[in-house]
Amino acid sequence: MCIAGPTSDPIAKHTVVLSDHVLPPGVCEGLGTLNATYAPVKVVAHGDTGLTITLHRSVTTHYNIACDAGAPVDNPPTITVSTNGPQIFNVSWRHPAACHPTTLPGGCTATAPPAPPPPPCEGCLPGWRPTWNMSRSTALYGCNSTGPHNTAEAAAYGIMVYDWSHEKKEWVNTHPMNDDARLLSQAEAVLAVDPGVPGEQPRVWVYRNKIKALNWIGQVREKLDDPQYAGWFVRFKDYQGRASNNSYHAPACDWYGDAKSGPPKCSGFYHDQGQSPTRIDAGPAYSRPAGGGDNVCIDQCDCGAINPCGEYTFDHRNASFAEWWVNEWMISNQTLLHDPPIGLGWLDDGIGFDGVSELMVPPGSWVNDTGSSLSDMQAHVDAFLANIGRLQRAVVDRKGFYWQMIQGRGPTVRPVANISMSTCHEPQPRQVSPAKCAATLRQWCVPDPEPWQVAHLYNVCANEMVNASTARDATAEFLLTRGDFAWIGYNWAGCFPMPVKNATWLRPRPVEWDTDYGGRPAGPCEETAPASGVFKRTYPNAEVEWGCNTGTGAIRML
């Protein structure tokens, strides 16, 4: 194997791995090229066990190439990709040439292989019927940590997504904690107000974690506390009970014990305290109390009688676990099998070669505390990716979709002012030149635009939407360029109302989002005249326009 020349990343359009290892077309995700003449490349050798090639550009991709003397020379990379933090991707590749990696002076002599044709992407668009109703084309990733959400606001959105931290102040003080039951109760309260339109998108979507076993969730705690499922969870290395409490980067025991709750609980299963419920008097190794005290237990934190509260780790290498994970944890009567269906929302976290994402401990600590070798980590990552592929197939087969499958963000031609965005991460402030705006919209304003091959979420921030002109421009950009599967609204931004913290609604809702534009427009947008930089689109009840020279939009009702 020789990495040089104009070779392409063989998984720039990757596919889904099924449990039987068939590789049909699946979810697309471009990760650049291994050659990367346009970007820095870092190569780290791991002796005779393999090497890691890291590509840095707009995203970072780690190609973890492991020695496998029995693999064929044309063995491709693992087709699914894991993420470990924002815009960081991990690709696994078993290859015989990685067993004795060497550097060749002058580069490779062999001709690089041609790029493979991109497969069709059946997971890029939902399987349900699209909607052109404006109010149902809005989305809110919501979280109210102090109690239930206002169902009037929830019912106003076409898609309402709830985070694990929703109602946290309530469930951290329930005995035992019942995060999943609270999420289900909130979803059913919204569905009682508006169950949605049969055959269209699920009205409510809920959080699930792909790798962290959070035992404040009843479904997870039931398995974690049952010895017959011990093989489903990763263990600390050389755990010796309470004597091991200070042996790892993360504490093996909780910090309290009293006559009411009994002695301190310890667990041999790896667990981190990064975002766990906590107490005011907890030591520095534990999660710190939030500003509003939403994560603070008034009495002792109660995640069951056996194990302390923590972020445990699922072991995807276990076959019986994989069956439960797909068909009971992810897809269940609390989600897609519910009547009406409740969608899968944010599927959180992942595992890479330095361990599990978003931990309180330093990078690499998970690997050390579990005693995992490079081959162990390869097995963890491979099993995790295979299960993600299996899940994607199961979700697509049920005409489902989840939050991260919404790949697009619209044309992003709307300028975004550099104002305080608080905890809003998307969109970031940006300036768009008239030339860039026009060039972008000329790719969108054509018959059957290529961007419509994926679903899009047009993100806005709460501080923007209190300004009537900005709200109009954001809606105009959306109406001008949207395809069948597109939504405008709010991504994750915190567990409190914004921009006014004591408001009864979590986020501002512009009047344009509840206006009737008449449904599907006549076609895609068009430039009004050659090189004019003005683009328009006609709906049954409105004409929408965007001027690249002014950086503003207009919506004129007919």
* SSE sequence, one letter per element: EEEEEEHEHHEEHEEHEEEHHHEHHEEEEE
- Biggest beta-sheet profile: 6 strands, parallel
From the spread of the alpha carbons, the general shape counts as globular
What is the oligomer described by this structure?
A: single chain
Q: Averaging pLDDT over every residue, what do you get?
A: 86
How far apart lie the N and C ends?
63 Å
- Radius of gyration based on Cα positions: 25 Å
The helix-and-strand class reads: alpha/beta
Strand content: 15-25%
Poorly predicted tracts of residues: 1-38
Helix content: 10-25%
Number of helices: 10
Number of strands: 20
Strand line-up of the largest beta sheet? 12-8-7-6-16-15
Describe the SSE topology.
Layout: E1 41-45, E2 50-56, E3 60-67, E4 82-83, E5 88-95, E6 138-142, H1 151-156, E7 159-162, H2 168-171, H3 179-193, E8 204-209, E9 212-214, H4 218-224, E10 271-272, E11 311-313, H5 319-330, E12 343-348, E13 351-352, E14 355-356, H6 365-370, H7 374-397, H8 434-444, E15 456-459, H9 462-465, H10 468-481, E16 486-490, E17 526-527, E18 534-538, E19 542-547, E20 552-557
Parallel strand pairs: 3-5, 6-7, 6-16, 7-8, 8-12, 15-16
Antiparallel strand pairs: 1-2, 2-3, 4-5, 9-11, 10-11, 13-14, 17-18, 18-19, 19-20
